[in-house]
Write a structure and sequence with these properties.
Length: 394
């Protein structure tokens, strides 16, 4: 019995983690069925390498954000795309899993489908839907045309696709952050809060640090003058932490900066100021009232404001269809505005309790623990006859 061979492609740190979790879940499921250990190769980052994926390229080094970054890296990305297509055609895996990184992976899947090889028909899977429901919904047509399976981690996506492409195989498996924060669902805020503890989460890319960190530290100084507090900033790696401290060390604040330890920091936070993105869901999971901000380059913002079809950027706000987390975007991301909102929340315990209750309700929509294993089940159902698709996520 030959082992199943998987090619994984992830181009950002968040996708790198998702792919590593998925690889382990696929191993677990195949071991439980008495199947040979699968083989993994592809492009990704350090988490995938640690999980046993043979990397041909550290694609996370080329994580980009915004139109300007795309233009600067266009030639390199085109070459990487050609290399990944050549690698797939040479190695001929049974399953190709494209993890997040929607722009690149959509083109990769389309190119493979447009030029098939005789005798090779891999299953093509996208793990995490591109946010075509937020902008450029016409791109969903190519996803439905090229993919055998779309694995969704947001609850509203399956119905969105079903209304437009009813024959498209879309499976909602729940959100992996539930498994990454095992103590969050039991968190109970203290009856009497100690001096407030505020958390700064500026983002996971250098461009986000450059644009968000100065705004956050300036807002923290204004809040500190009104409501003395403890401050913690969490970064995803040491280079980003050093870049932030070089821009503004915040030595006049009672500020701790750290790499990792997000769960522990959230568990004791009264309020967070965070970049929009997945981290806002982690704040919601820990029931931490959060102010969300985002600043992009001028060119990226001008393009985005013309194509984005949704009213909110923070994921909890999209789930709730209302601003549970106040958003400060582009020109509105000013230290004075953020500080005023933070101070009001810190001085209003009843409003913080109301927000925590709303966040607790929203998190129930993300499903129960086990998302990576449900994703593995959905993928294996394409390749192993009789393999169950797994239980529903909640």
């Amino acid at each position: 019995m030959n082992p199943l061979r998987f090619m994984l492609i992830a181009g950002e740190p968040s996708g790198d983690l998702l792919a590593a979790e998925l690889a382990q879940a696929l191993r677990d499921r195949l071991r439980s069925k008495g199947q040979p250990a699968p083989e993994f190769f592809g492009a990704g980052g350090p988490r995938m390498a640690e999980s046993g994926v043979a990397l041909e390229l550290d694609l996370t080094r080329y994580a980009i954000i915004g139109f300007a970054d795309v233009l600067r890296n266009l030639w390199r990305l085109r070459q990487i795309l050609r290399d990944m297509i050549a690698l797939a055609r040479e190695r001929r895996p049974d399953v190709i899993v494209c993890v997040d990184y929607g722009g690149f992976n959509r083109r990769f899947a389309a190119a493979l489908r447009a030029h098939p090889l005789p005798g090779w028909n891999p299953r093509l899977v996208q793990y995490v839907s591109p946010q075509v429901w937020a902008s450029r919904p016409s791109r969903a047509r190519t996803l439905a045309r090229d993919l055998d399976l779309l694995v969704s981690i947001l609850p509203m996506e399956r119905a969105w696709y079903a209304a437009r492409y009813p024959n498209f195989n879309v499976q909602f498996v729940g959100h992996p952050i539930i498994d990454r924060h095992p103590g969050a669902l039991e968190r109970q805020p203290p009856a009497t809060e100690p001096p407030p503890h505020l958390l700064l989460l500026p983002g996971s890319r250098p461009a986000e640090i450059a644009r968000h960190w100065p705004v956050m530290v300036a807002a923290a100084r204004l809040v500190q003058s009104a409501v003395p507090a403890h401050w913690t900033a969490v970064f995803v790696d040491e280079p980003l932490r050093q870049a932030a401290l070089a821009a503004d060390p915040g030595t006049d604040l009672p500020l701790e900066t750290r790499v990792g330890g997000l769960s522990e920091a959230l568990s004791r936070s009264t309020l967070a100021i965070a970049s929009t993105g997945t981290v806002t869901l982690e704040c919601a999971l820990w029931q931490v009232p959060t102010l969300a901000l985002y600043k992009a380059s001028w060119s990226t913002y001008q393009i985005a404001r013309r194509i984005i079809k949704v009213r909110h950027l923070a994921l909890p706000n999209l789930l709730a269809a209302e601003p549970v987390m106040p958003e400060f975007l582009q020109d509105a991301a000013e230290p004075e505005r953020i500080a005023r909102a933070a101070t009001r929340l810190l001085q209003d315990p009843q409003e913080r309790a109301r927000v925590r209750s709303r966040l607790r309700d929203l998190i129930q929509l993300l499903g129960s623990p086990g998302a990576a294993h449900r994703a593995a089940d959905a993928i294996l159902a394409l390749t192993l006859p009789g393999h169950p698709t797994g239980p529903p996520p909640s």
